[in-house]
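pasting for ref
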Amino acid sequence: MQSALLATGFAGLLFIAAFVALGLLAPDYNLVSDTISALEFTPLSLAQRANFFVFGLLLCAFAAGLRRELAGGRGAILIPSFQAAGGIGVIGDAIFVLNPLHLVCDLVAFNSALLVLLLFAWRFRAEPNWRGWTEYSIVTALTMMALLAAFGFANQHGGPAGLMEKLASCTRTIWSVLFSVRLLAGKSLGKGPN
């Protein structure tokens, strides 16, 4: 059961594959300039809404796996809580297509992902078997923030906003995949001090 929950850390790969495929199939959709959510305003709207919904559910399942994995250590409550909040935000993106609720869900999802990375950086400081992951988590969070700032700028000035948003999603997904691979390979997180 725990391995299945931890395997949901690969969910971002499915999410990315789906939105890229949908973006290639949707008429008049531009992968570089259009946001992921813009797919909800194409003839493939239902497919992208399902993509958001399934991804959100898998993020919540990963939160459950993290809760069991992190029991007793730093961030044992906060990390899974923010992971679940991110999943709920993505599910909200499937339900609320129009702003302002869609934007609120986006903010919850991205900010929760950033908080999870920063909380893991704090957790890894107490984990001698995870050397280098404190720095990697911080760099990933900073890269995501920079890409999201570039997204905001490009969105206001007609630039490659969609590309910046997609790269931010990919950055977090790479971290999640590498983290999940280590956990599934047996690299446990010690039950460090709270």
